[in-house]
Design a protein that fits this description.
The structure holds two protein chains of two kinds. Chain A is of the alpha+beta class. Chain A is built from eight helices and twelve strands. Chain A has a single domain, classed as 5'-Nucleotidase, C-terminal domain (5'-nucleotidase,  domain 2, Alpha-Beta Complex), CATH 3.90.780.10. Chain B contains nine helices and 13 strands. The chains are: A alpha+beta, B alpha/beta. Chain B: One of its GO terms (biological process) is nucleotide catabolic process.
Chain lengths: 257, 311
């Protein structure tokens, strides 16, 4: 047998056959009488199938030559789980800050950034060496960075979306969430003003309502920067390395509840 | 966990587990040729995880890997006569294998492992309908989608609404439901695909499979997601609002379930939901034992014996 088949729950009950014979239908020659369920962890305890390994090795060789290059170093591990569950996390702050820093090199008049939704941040970023592959796995999508100029009323809807969804990756923005609503919103150092327009850095995916994001309907202007979100992240890691620094992030209370 | 146990006991109580009377010793019965065993193996949200997660200190380091999964599947196939290997979608996206090769590697590996069928997840649209279509020649297994109408797209005729597998006299009907694409997938990437109500479609197809086409078991591959705080349609909603589905193999929410959940369906029978996390970290298995019925059989949906085992 494959496993020790330790039975955790065995539920047996006997009922008269008469009950069975009284419930009548006859569409099939077989009747389901029992189910057994089990789950196998796929880990180091299982020897690999060499035929399957050979199927992907040529692809792996091509991939490794491009992807295993170390482009920088991280001062700390940043977890996806905390970015899924907390209003701000090291990983969401790094993600948002890095894209904003890189985008501001191309457009200096960005007010704030929400470059992705929480769902768009895909894996942990480890402490130590960072490879091209780490960034591809963090941001596998081909999304382009865009700067949307939106009316204050639409910005309000975006802030409400961020609050209702218990925080999203943001930079240049501070807010508190009270009763699922945004309060004490500060953008780029100034209190939020619904009467003015805001220039928001995001992705084409998010600006098209991806993950049901609100606030980007009918923007006054939508400018495509010509820089993918992933490339902004790659550039940030490379820039820090060139400066002799590690990448890092802080929890600074930008979103609290 | 506690909730699951209670729920299961309720089934036994309310249903009376008539079937157990016939399943006193399935192994003896199998030897006599009266019991047929079917083994369902399943994955979901593998997300291009070809190699195990890298050993870099992150949460899932060292877990998963297609070469190990293939070895495990091979071992089970050597032990069992009737195996179906199924996937609930999001085959694509998540590692550079997809970015560089567009899904070719994933499809070739699933073919090598002998997958019998898969449905489409939202990320399988990430390179557009064209990007998915381009990889189909590498997939030697059907893509089953019941609530996406691709009639006005490139994928017309490339997927099937359901498929019936025959194993040692058993008929197993498999169909697939996908999540609403609007708001989740870029419009350019799904084009003129029409999303149809998954509950209505599931009821229609499950009835067709069970009643009209005499399937002994009906399996739904679902990329709807296990459950939501909102009223959004999920596997739990699907299970409770349909009849004739025996097993929902779920995905999308990357849920690691302690044990499968058994839901009382619309006609009072059991619909089981199972989902095994993501990235091929686990392989799910459900074995069903069927007894050849001599004379009249119990009505479909009668309770049966359920054991959850530990690997």
């Amino acid at each position: 047998m494959l496993s020790s088949t330790k039975v955790v729950k065995r539920l047996v009950s006997f009922v008269s056959l008469i009950y069975l014979l009284s419930a009548i239908s006859c569409s099939s020659a077989y009747e389901l009488v029992k189910a057994e369920r089990i789950e196998y962890p796929v880990n180091v305890s299982i020897a690999v199938d060499s035929a399957v390994l050979k199927t992907y090795l040529p692809y792996k060789a091509g991939l490794d030559s491009q992807m295993n290059r170390v482009i920088g170093h991280s001062a700390l591990a940043m977890s996806k789980k905390s970015s899924d569950t907390l209003p701000e996390s090291l990983l969401s702050n790094f993600f948002a800050d890095a894209t904003l820093v890189q985008a501001r090199k191309m457009d200096t008049a960005i007010d704030f950034a929400m470059p992705s939704t929480k769902g768009g941040i895909r894996v942990d970023l480890p402490k130590g060496p960072i490879t091209v592959s780490n960034i591809f796995e963090l941001m596998p999508f081909e999304n382009e960075l865009v700067v949307c100029t939106i009316k204050g009323t639409e910005a309000q809807r975006l802030l409400e979306f961020i609050a209702a969804s218990k925080g999203q990756p943001v930079a240049g923005l501070r807010m508190k969430i009270k009763d699922k609503k945004p309060v004490d919103v500060v953008i780029n150092g100034k209190a939020f003003d619904i009467s003015r327009n805001y220039r928001v850095l995001t992705s084409d995916y998010v600006s098209n309502g991806g993950d049901n994001t609100l606030g980007f309907k009918d923007p006054v202007e939508k400018k495509v920067l010509g820089l993918k979100v992933r490339d902004a992240l790659l550039n940030e890691v490379k820039d820090k390395q060139a400066e002799g620094k590690t990448i890092t992030a802080q929890l600074d209370g930008r979103i609290t509840y | 966990m506690e909730e699951l146990l209670i729920k299961r006991r309720n089934f036994i109580k309310t249903g009376g587990l008539a079937a157990a009377a016939l399943a006193i010793n399935p192994f003896e019965a199998m030897a006599a040729g009266d019991v047929v065993k079917l083994t369902i193996l399943h994955t979901n949200d593998v997300h291009s995880r070809v190699e195990p997660f890298p050993m870099d200190g992150s949460r899932n380091q060292g877990l998963g890997g297609v070469a190990r999964r293939a070895a495990l599947i091979k071992r089970i196939r050597a032990e069992e006569q009737n195996v179906l290997l199924l996937d609930a979608g999001d085959i694509f996206q998540g590692t550079p294998y997809f970015n560089l090769y567009g899904g070719e590697v994933e499809m070739k590996l699933m073919t090598a492992m002998g997958y019998d069928a898969a449905t489409m997840g939202n990320h399988d649209f990430d390179n557009g309908l064209e990007g998915f279509h381009k990889q189909l020649p590498h997939a030697n297994f059907p893509i089953i989608c019941s609530n996406y109408d691709f009639s006005n797209t490139l994928l017309k005729g490339a997927t099937q609404p359901y498929k019936i597998f025959k194993k040692q006299g058993l008929k197993i009907g498999v169909f697939g439901v996908g999540i609403e694409l609007k708001g989740l997938v870029e419009e350019n990437n799904y084009g003129d695909t029409v999303y149809l109500n998954p509950v209505l479609k599931a009821n229609e197809i499950a009835a067709l499979l069970k009643k009209d086409l005499d399937c002994d078991l009906v399996i739904c591959l679902s990329h709807l997601g296990y459950k939501y705080a909102s009223a959004k349609v999920s596997d739990q909603v699907l299970a409770a609002q349909t009849s004739n589905i025996d097993l929902i193999i779920g995905g999308h929410t990357h849920t690691f379930m302690d044990v499968p959940e058994d839901v009382k369906n619309l006609s009072g029978g059991i619909t089981t939901i199972n989902q095994v996390g993501f990235a091929g970290i686990n392989l799910g298995r459900v074995d069903y034992y069927f007894e050849k019925y001599k004379g009249k059989r119990a009505k479909a949906g009668a309770p049966y014996l359920i054991n959850d085992l530990e690997a």
